[in-house]
Amino acid sequence: MAAKKAKATNTVALSKDQFKDAIVKHLRSTCGTDEARANNQAWWKATCAAVNELVFDRLTETSKANADKDSRAVHYLSLEFLMGRLTVNNMHNVGVFGAARDALADLGKDVNDICDEEPDMALGNGGLGRLAACFIDSLATLNYPAVGYGIHYEHGLFRQEIQGGRQIERPDSWREYGNPWEICRPESIQEVPLYGYVETVFGEDGKMRKVWHAGRQIKGVPWDIPVVGYEAKTVNVLRLWESKAADFFDWDVFNAGGYIDSQSEKSQAEAVSKVLYPNDESEAGKELRLIQQYFFCACSLKDIIRRYKRNHSDFSQFSKQAVIQLNDTHPTVAIPELMRILIDEEGLVWDDAWKICTETFAYTNHTLLPEALEKWAVYLFEKVLPRHLEIIYEINRRFLEDEVEAKWPGNDEMKRHLSIIEEGETRMVRMAYLCVVTCFKTNGVAAMHSELVKEDLFPEFYELWPERFVNVTNGVTPRRWLLACNEQLANMYNETVGTDWPRKLDELKGAAKFADDAKFQKNFMAIKREKKVELADKIEELCGIKVSPDAMFNVLIKRLHEYKRQHLALLHILALYRRLLENPDYDMGPQVFIFGSKAAPGYKLAKDIIYAINKVADKVNNDPRIKDKLKVVFMPNYRVTLAEKLFPAGDVSLQISTAGYEASGTGNMKFALNGALTLGTMDGANVEIREEVGDENIFIFGMDCDEVKALKAAGYNPWDYYYGNPELKAVLDWLETDFFTPGAPGELASIKHSLLEGGDPYLVLADFESFTTQYTAVDVAYRDQKKWAKMAIINSASVGKFNSDRSIEDYVDRIWKLEKVMPN
Ligand code: GL7
Fold first, then answer.
1. What is the pTM of this model?
2. I want to staple 441 with a disulfide (CB 3.0 to 4.6 A). Which of 235, 362, 466, 740 is the partner?
3. So what EC number does this one have (predicted)?
4. Computed from CA positions of residues 751, 724, 588, 563, in that sequence, does the dihedral angle turn out positive or negative?
5. How many helices (H) and strands (E) does the chain have?
6. Nearest CA to ligand 1 atom 14
7. CA 663 / ligand 1 centre spacing (Å)
8. How do the domains of the chain map onto residue ranges?
């Protein structure tokens, strides 16, 4: 096995001594210091530079091979890439982690301390952005030609501080002191027009043309982040655009003494890539956000076309060479932009341009939440992108008059219903409709979600074009989410099933036959305990709370949203606390509830829920009466780096969204892979996890999607549940007292009100009883450690399907039709 691993990497990897020399060299030549004076930051940068010697060579080789072969490539357009840290992952992928660790140790440094210097690259909000990061890792690992395109935000997702139990948002500055992984490419700068008006002109040939006279130009500067495939020769690129003023400096204004004025254009232009919008699953609805979307689509399309033109003199082969995947509707404006380029700049006729667009674009839907389905006011489009609005109108006219009319003749109501333009007081562009009308494929992200996309979200479009709708179940990269974050379990698997599993995750299945083996169970649970000890230390360091690694760790980590139902878990905690107070001998094993979550800054109730968790935690953790049987922890600033500590340490993975609302989830996959048992609803990918691990190795509770729909249709009344369950009533009423907020009654009341007067839109009260009942079963199961070990092993060994490499192969097979270019 060891020989096999060496063979895969020894052509390029460095030995420990070579690595040591490289670090020392870079301390001097790259960082301008030496071993005696360098601080950890310099050691980190020198280490990255040493890794980059391998990475950059492969990057150049990959792009040369792609150019030489003129290969078809996927262009993954995403407003978010939640990369986290890159150093450890890149070391693993390039095959030098061991050499680097040993080299640093020889130099008196601990690899973990050095890698801890790296700030998270948090250019995303949550699951959607992290999925994009996993996908580009898999694309490189599988040697597929691919480019990720996004925005080089100066500030990523805000840093969360907790003060007095409340969330405070602080700016994130991930590249304040430079980032060794990115390369600026001034040779590929693009200009982006904005605002202005459209003129109709007639050429000498009598043909009509449209000319967009832009009111402003901004510049897009590309920054490339290498994306290293695991034990693969491919290094792809994530290209992120930074906005700059087109004329960097207005000298006339400056010379006339107007320094401030000359700076204002600069700062306006730079505002475009300044911050990531922190809204998760809700529409941002701001002019700047539309400009962000257009800015990165325009830059990316110009880049794609520039590359295409190196080998082609017309557009006849364009859709054979390029497939563009729209990661949700955020990059939809790329559609009218490509039409504009082809017609206005390249001189194609409408039908030819349209054919190219419909063969080039594909769209992934990531949510059914109505508030997350983007709509842009027509007047805003008219102001910022006047030519694009004309194009959208024309796409819509042809769609309604040709396709809708043919299918539903004379049906004006249907035309109104399916129109890309929504009529009303403020006319709106429905971006998802524009996607479905244009794209050759529309996919959902889990089997159940893809069915709902067809049945509930786009039923008429599905009737029109059933062949366009496909499913691609999400996945996660096992390199980051097992190999790099859980070295102990990774090593155990190396010894049990060999070392191919980081690519072929199905191989873990080989470990399932040891699920009953006492020795294997002991080792597996010892590793879990080790990861729990590590997490307990972190909890004490960050929160000052002592938790026992022998307690059951229940973990709920994801963005805060009512549909994700963190408050359902909170009500359950209150119920347990109450039971313990009423009966100190109440029979339960010691339990720790661990939350990690950011709330969108403007989402009041979400922030109230964070506050409530912290207030309940204060009380519960310091109540001697319950003898440490229950602990509640809210870990501040949940992000990829913290997630890497939490997933390996979880015993119970809470996936408790209202059925039908969580499109997929990906944390559910990371937990199962690391041996946690899911307590979840029949929602998103939970459904498929259950299929893989078996009904007896997962705890399902609550209503399924059909039951949710039926209850809503019948008229849901949360008061029935309030009056029907005395324990539920008691814990809800508790929130109104000052028990958790001494001297300030009512501070937690907004949660109760949202669940009663507010109508409880996500059916928290309806699922409460089933949740608490199932939790008792989880507690009982956990106390039988042999049984639990068996279930945990089966979970970890059975989730090979959720490798993001499999997702990518599905995309390639069903949508992208790519061929591998680099040899392995
Ligand atoms: C999301 C879904 O909510 C989540 O269930 C899914 O796993 C993820 C990736 O497909 O996409 N949709 C969405 O808008 N966000 C998500 O995380 C922010």
1. 0.97
2. 362
3. 2.4.1.1
4. negative
5. 35, 25
6. 281
7. 6
8. 70-85+120-474+809-816, 478-802
